Each structure stands twice: as structure tokens, then as C-alpha cells.
TrEMBL record:
Protein name: Putative 4-hydroxy-4-methyl-2-oxoglutarate aldolase
InterPro entries: RraA/RraA-like, RraA/RraA-like_sf
Lineage: Bacteria, Bacillati, Actinomycetota, Coriobacteriia, Coriobacteriales
Sequence positions that bind Mg(2+): D122
PANTHER family in alphabetical order: 4-HYDROXY-4-METHYL-2-OXOGLUTARATE ALDOLASE 3-RELATED
Organism per entry: Coriobacterium glomerans (strain ATCC 49209 / DSM 20642 / JCM 10262 / PW2)
Amino acid sequence: MSVGNRVFKKICRPKPHFLAEFAQIPCANTADTMSRSCAVNPRIRLMSNPSISIVAGPALTVKTRAGDNLMIHAALEMIEPGDILVVGNEGDASRALMGEIMFTYARYMDVGAIVLDGPIRDVGAVRKMDFPIYATGSTPGGPYKEGPGEVNVPISCGNLAINPGDIMVCDPDGVIAIPFADAKNVLANARELSALDHSKVEAAAKGTAKRQWVGETLNSKNVEIIDARYDEQRD
């Protein structure tokens, strides 16, 4: 087997009801139940104008050589509707990995979202596209199409380890990854926290939020509270 230059055609795909339920919960709520350690680096940001605010789908992973998109093309030939294309790019930011033509084809293939740890081009067209496209920025410099690379292997994207079939959830805040094996437990916790968070928002709007924890925490950390101006301090 040619490690570093191979394509795996199959991934584990979560059951549709898992994806539908994760797509009802903001990424921030789900992330809070995972010790706040499941989000891709915020350098990877939303570049398009999706009509749906939250999207969830299984990760179809691509490991590219820096600035090369041959394996992204290979992935687009086998991607299934609702899959989320997630691309590791060795941290490179010198060449666009995708542009309008590839994004248009991905939309035709009914891709759920695209998450690139690298730049794109044709941003004028991308800003009008109605499905989620995340990238680190833009450059007119185009990619190579030489390889090597791999499809559906573990990758690093936005400083986060992602395995093929992990559940990716994307919203305007950014992107999180939920390990396939943990999905059931994470979903139960996220549903509970999301309901609690909604009640906190309502309390904040009414001025009835419980804020005593702030003083208690400051006190427990021995924060000195001084009833004076800074410039009034004297030896």
C-alpha cells in the first residue's frame, strides 16, 4: 500500500437523525460540552453566504501536499450528498486550493460544506454562494495538481485532529469536529446545555440572570477589590 499517496473510498457515516439533531444546536453549545477543545482554529473562517445557519455532516478528509489540489479533485469524484469536505494543507497559505469552478461543482454534488486549511480564490463569486465554505483567506495564486496526497485518512485541519467520518458542525461562529465514537454522548449533553443556555439568554434579557458567581469567583481567587481610582493610590 502506497502510504502518502492513496485514496480510501469508504467512511463510516453517522445516522441521519444524529446529523439532523446536531444541526439544531449552535456550535458554541456543543463545543462547551467537549471541554471547549473541538473547534478548528479561527483562522479558518466563513467565506460564503449560506442560506442555512447550521450544517452537520460526516467528514470526508483530504491530506494534500502544500498548495496542491489533486486529491481534492479525487475526493469530489466520490463525495456523497451532505458530506463535509475537510482539507489539511500542511499549514500553507501561499496558493488557493479551490476556486469558483470547483465550488460550483461541489454544489452540484450537494456537498454539505467545505472546510479548507488554506486560501481560496474567486471570492467575489464565493461570497454569493449559498452553502458553507470556510478557508483561511484568499489569493489569486492557483494550486498545483501533481500530488501526492491522501483521501479519507486522519488529518490535521486548523490545529485539530480529524478522522474520516467524524461529525463536522459548521455555523457562522466556525467549525467543530465530534469524534464518531463520541457522537451519542456529545449529542445528549449538547441538547441539555443548549436548553440551559437558552434560558440564560432569556434571563439576561429580563435582568434576572444570576450573577453572584462573579463575586464568589473573584473572592476565591483572592482578587483585591479597591474602592478608589487608580490615580488616587498612595504609598
